[in-house]
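Let's practice the habit of predicting before peeking. Look at the sequence and jot down your guess about where helices and strands might fall. Then scroll down.
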Amino acid sequence: MKETFAVIAAILAIGGNIPYIVDIFKGRVQPHAYTWFVWTLVTAIVFFGQVAKGAGIGALPTAASGFFTLLIFLLSLKNGFKHATKIDTVFLVLALAGIIPWLITNDPTVSVVIAVAIDLTAFLPTLRKTWLKPSTESPLLYGSNVLRHILALLSMQTYNLATTLHSIAMLITNTAMTILLVTSKPVKESDA
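Done guessing? Here is the structure:
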């Protein structure tokens, strides 16, 4: 049964990201490059931490997500949000500074805890951007991420901090983002 949950969660990673990528090309969404860059690094850290701590097939959704996170980062360089602020840069520097303790430690659990803290910090520029301009994001990606992380948790071969913390944190942030996007009123061109 865990294998089924892992495969469905990986399919959700693919299914949630493909429309988002299409929306990038169509100019409907504008991913924040800072956030997606850090998310690419963090997803790799979490994946290796999950594997090291026994996630087994439960790491498959993280791997699938990591591929698309990297792709979206690369696309954001050309087609992403272009109005990074000083506070966005502060969040980027804080997130990248968090990688130093990860490099120092060889403990997968500590690495995942640090990676999740970095991930949450990196999420702030996208959250700020979405609060101001909700039309620059799509609720489909974040809503499918909620379901994906529920299934990812159910697919873990071993339950410990290293294998579950990332999905728990992502459940919270993606739920918040989905609610923000679904309840926000679209910004009119005259208001922008």
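How did you do? DSSP finds eight helices and no strands in the chain.
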